[in-house]
Amino acid sequence: MPISYFLVLSALLFSVGVYGVLARQNAVLVLLSIELMLNAVNINLVAFSAFFGSEGVGGQVFALFVIAVAAAEVGVGLAIVILLFRNRQTVDVDEMSYMKW
Amino acid sequence: MPEGYFGQYVTIGIFAIVGTVLVAATLQLSRLVRPNHPTTAKLTTYESGIDPIGHGWSQSNVRYYIFALLFVVFDVEAVFLFPWAIVFEELGTAAFVEMVIFIGILALALLYAVKKRVLEWL
Amino acid sequence: MMELAQQVGATAAAVDWHAIAPELVLAATACIVLVADLFLPDDAKWLAMPLSAAGIIGTLAAIVSLIGAGNRLTLAGAFEVDGFALLFKGVFCVLGLLILAISFHYFRVGRYYQGEYYFLMLCSLLGGVVMSSARDLVTIFIAIELISIPGFIMAGLRKGDAKSNEAALKFFLFGVLSSAVMLYGMSLAYGATGELLLEGIRAKLTAADEPLIVLSVFFIVVGFAFKISAVPFHFWAPDTYEGSPSPVAAFLSTISKIGGFVGLIVLMFRAFPDVADTWRPIFALLAILTMTVGNMIALRQTHIIRLLAYSGIAQSGYVLVALALIEPGATASNEQAFQSAVIYLAIYGIMDAGAFAAAVAFARRGGSYFIEDYSGLWQRSPVLATLLAGFLISLAGTPPMAGFWAKVFVFLAAIEAQSYLLAIVMGLNAVVAAWYYLAVVKKMFFEKAELAEPVEVPAVLRVAMGLAAAALVAVFVYPRLVTELAERSLF
């Protein structure tokens, strides 16, 4: 399969993620959208890695690190969201406006 | 009995048909014979004889999210173990020591969780 | 998979343990602090701070032992110890000690998770120290995440305070978003060249697809622009600084920001210097916006932390000016711009941390973060007023403090590179900035105090601020102290 298929898929996934980040109000859904963006990165990395053949093992290694770091981020992010829900009874990012300017 | 390799599929097919018909026929038969008086009590969801409480979409206690977080982190750390296991024999002792350090640091995190009493099932 | 095995097996050469000694010491310290905190009784939890300080001093010792040992390349080329790396490792460790001093009384009195805080701070500091040496995409990525992720938690450390929660969430969402954007750019750079090492990327760039590289550089710069809070990607910074515990704000605006800059500089100068034409305009635009918007909004701030936040944004703009001067081939002016950026970052870290220290000291007992309460501080507490005035004057870029040279070097580099527009905008901004910094100084010295009692400053904080101010004066008197280091840090 030509590599452009994967790149287009990844670009679409990344765009869906960006849209989600901008349009969603629920913090958990924003988090999910960011995960989509990270997975788009992983598709890119693995597709390029396969494209380069035996030379391109680095991309796979990079993808592993991205997966691990994404898990850590989700752990921290969900903890923050839960904390926020405890104090404010909402996870709507539009209501996060105690501080402005 | 039909002969040959594909003939055995015919045998399986016959058994399948007979089995299906038998189950369907028995169910239909019992429907004809049994009395039918539905009441509210009879129509409730079967929950081992106890009155069902709440909905199918019940919420689990939020304090268990810590288990989920711990699981996610430790689960994903395993991605580093697989590549390591593949090259382990070639790299020898050094790789072993490095992985022990890696797992040791994770074990510190577990120690932290234990000391903070988040692993106690409430 | 066998190919994978061979590949990894081939590159798993011996590790140069001495080269990574600073990182090892710091990582071990972080682990020890975490475990020690678990077994310390509540009224002895503050011991985590001296323990951390000892670890950072140990790290500094390891860094000093590497001076003069020549360039070392290890971990298959992903990790390099050179003049640049050593300089910034040193800067990070010194800043780490300053932040510890700022944190000590704040967290001891407030009893907010002291052990966890110091552990997280050391982890984040480790990220900065690793970043100074990172020479491939994976290491840079890991380093920037190591700086950021503990930062998310530290910002939300005051668990019951809704403002702190909000600070953490904003910082987290922007931080993770920026990582994703940056990673997408990195994956494109990898795709265009097939290399993860920065040197490899640079070597193969000539043959690479041009549009792919432009896109990749664009994504990477946008990702880092969030981290260094450049306008228009700065929205999180003032809210996060205000909402998080003040020592954490000091940390974020110094170590975390400088860490982002170090990563950006390494990437741009080691991987993409030959395509500087594609990224110079982006930096020029970011620099002009960042300086101007940061200073304009800072003018109307009444809260000292928010003032420092917006002024910190503007300060990022001055460093971006230096990065916007790079032209492929113009070696002399490139070197000058590079050195001015390095000098600016080093001096900025010290003076900004000092200003935060003074703000925390003032707000400690019954004080506040509002600038109007600073009036007449000179009568109440001459030492604190003088120190804070010193740091603000340095931030404003007026003599007799080191901040003066920081701005002058960037300005001269801009003249040298014939970027007169940037030089003019920078000069105008320096004047605007001086206005609001000196307004605070004027309040402290020439207005009457409403309260009479002196502001009590803990000894640790006093010593730290005194040393920082002394260093700034020393650098002003004898700028060779930093220019020498900057010359040695040339790539």
* Number of beta-strand segments of chain B: 0
- What is the residue-averaged pLDDT of chain A? 88
CATH domain topology of chain A? Helix Hairpins
State the end-to-end distance of chain A.
51 Å
Please tell me the total number of domains of chain A.
1
Order of helices and strands of chain A: HHH
Low-confidence stretches of chain B: none
SSE sequence of chain B, one letter per element? HHHH
Shape of chain B: flat
What is the architecture of chain A at the second tier of CATH? Orthogonal Bundle
Strand content of chain B: under 5%
Q: Which chains make the largest contact?
A: A-C, 47 and 46 residues
Number of helices of chain B: 4
State mean pLDDT of chain B (0 to 100 scale): 82
State the assembly state of the protein chains: heterotrimer
What CATH first level of chain A would be assigned?
A: Mainly Alpha
Largest sheet of chain B: none
Give a structural overview.
The complex is a heterotrimer of chains A (101), B (122) and C (491). Chain A is mostly helical and 101 residues long. Chain A has a single domain (3-90), classed as Helix Hairpins. Chain A is 78% helix and 0% strand. Chain A has helices spanning 3-23, 27-52, 57-88. In chain A, helix 1 (3-23) packs antiparallel against helix 2. The mean pLDDT of chain A is 88. Chain B is mostly helical and 122 residues long. Chain B has a domain at 62-115. Chain B is built from four helices and no strands. In chain B, helix 3 runs antiparallel to helix 4. The longest helix of chain B has 29 residues, at 5-33. The model of chain C is unreliable at 1-12 (pLDDT under 50). Chain C has helices spanning 2-11, 21-39, 48-65, 83-110, 114-133, 137-155, 162-193, 198-204, 210-227, 236-243, 246-271, 276-298, 304-323, 331-363, 377-380, 382-396, 403-416, 420-446, 459-477, 480-488; strands at 72-74, 79-81. In chain C, a hairpin with a 4-residue loop joins strand 1 and strand 2. Chain C has a domain at 272-491. Chain C is globular, with a radius of gyration of 22 Å. The longest helix of chain C has 33 residues, at 331-363. In chain C, 75% of the residues lie in helices and 1% in strands. The two termini of chain C are 37 Å apart. In chain C, strands 1-2 form a two-stranded antiparallel sheet. Chain C has 491 residues and is an all-alpha fold. Classes of the chains: A mainly alpha (101), B mainly alpha (122), C mainly alpha (491). At the A-C interface, helix 1, helix 2 and helix 3 of A face helix 1, helix 6, helix 7 and helix 10 of C.
